[in-house]
Amino acid sequence: MFLRKSCLLAGGLLVLSFPVLASPGETFSFGEAAPAAKATRTVEVVLQDISFSPESLDVKAGETVRFVLVNKGQLLHEFNLGDAAMHVSHQQEMLKMQAGGMLTATGMKKDGMDHSTMDHGDMGAMKHDDPNSVLVEPGKTAELTWTFGKAGALEFACNIPGHYQAGMVGKLTVSQ
Fold first, then answer.
1. What is the pTM of this model?
2. How many domains does the chain fold into?
3. Distance CA 168, CA 48 (A)
């Protein structure tokens, strides 16, 4: 009996250790990507080295917001929408991308991975293409448009390794 419980626990932990990779057409419990033309409001978010401005945002359930993301820092940054658990999972994915040479301090390589040492089954098709996330290189501007589905507490964060932990996270409140 003890052995069976141990195997179940080990199997459960193994499943939890894999990153969640979203499909571009995937919807989330808190909303979905939308075309910019459907936006009812535009919000500019400035990404600086280890901070966002503004630090918090308020939106309404059902609202479609076009985020214009301006990286005024010297480092590559990310704007990722989700709850705290999603950010933890995405940080693991970003660590693997960095370890594989796909992410540098200032950009993302198209195919910068060292394929000779990588487990092709695990990372061969890894891309940064989640619909709730965008990378912004230093001095560049990018956009993400999102329709918020329900009221709740979310975060917008940079999950480049170490950035979230250093405080590059903001509160996003979705009200009715």
1. 0.77
2. 1
3. 9
